[in-house]
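Sample entry (339 residues):
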Amino acid sequence: MNDSLYHPQIDFNGASVLITGGTGSFGKVFVRTLFERYTPDRVVVLSRDEMKHEEMQRLYPREQYPAMRFFLGDVRDADRLTMAMADIEYVVHAAAQKIVPLAEYNSFECVHTNVLGMENVVRAALRNGVKRVIALSTDKAASPVNLYGATKLASDKICVAANHLRGKSGPIFSVVRYGNVLNSRGSVVPLFRRLLEESPESDLPVTDAQMTRFWITLPQAVDFVLSCFEVMRGGEVFVPKIPSMRLLDLVEAIAPGKSYNIVGIRPGEKLHEAMITLDEARHTVDFSDRYIIEPNIALYQRQSFLDDGATAVEPDFSYTSNGNDVWLSVDELRGLIQD
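Predicted structure, serialized as tokens:
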């Protein structure tokens, strides 16, 4: 992947930005990147975890970062979300219940956070006259087989459909869909490292020897989201062109020569992931470093991206982790993990 393609162009100097779930892995890198590249007027971090708020506040003391705001709140709480979004221009909606097995066993909570939470974000953005909203999605929302993926698909549909409600000057809404994030909280790399520390002689648990996944680093994910603010028209699902990896190659990268034990796929898990399905191909264009799934809504003008140099994909196109053209080698995975 060419990192240079992910450098954002939009100017966030003097801007006001809110990120839901902002104390999570993505939120921390997102906030750090904003302050490294820009001088925003206000950065609001919304999260329900008070301990993570306290930890993050130590990194951003008010004396050095007067633009920082920490809002305790839950995306389920529409009133609190509306309050936090006052005078905000740009919103990144990153809050979600993400752990697949937990979602399978706690379905009510998953639906309330991922689906109703997205609705609350839309309502708050409309009430406050926000300029642009990007919701973070997942490859699991494409042909979902688990509740997490199903709720994120519903969330994506709500975000896209919100463009019908904006009128002539309201916020525009789009979605970013990408795969597994290297070293994010709850991902396999921290799990493997912890197991190696706790029991270095034991085999590593591998769900399936054939398993593949899309792979992106946190800085690449942040850069991609920032760049999507520049090109969004409203209603698109942006998909970055990212490499795939084999789970067994990851084991070799983390612990060369280490033995492993096949434990079977967890509830709700896929053997391979898809980011663009065959049914989505007729609405998808290839645009430089990304694919764009265009919304199937009357307000959308397909010619917009075609005029900018995008090309329609083939009717039988799909974008899957096992059918990808770009793969990470063991050495490349090891380098990314060390970085």
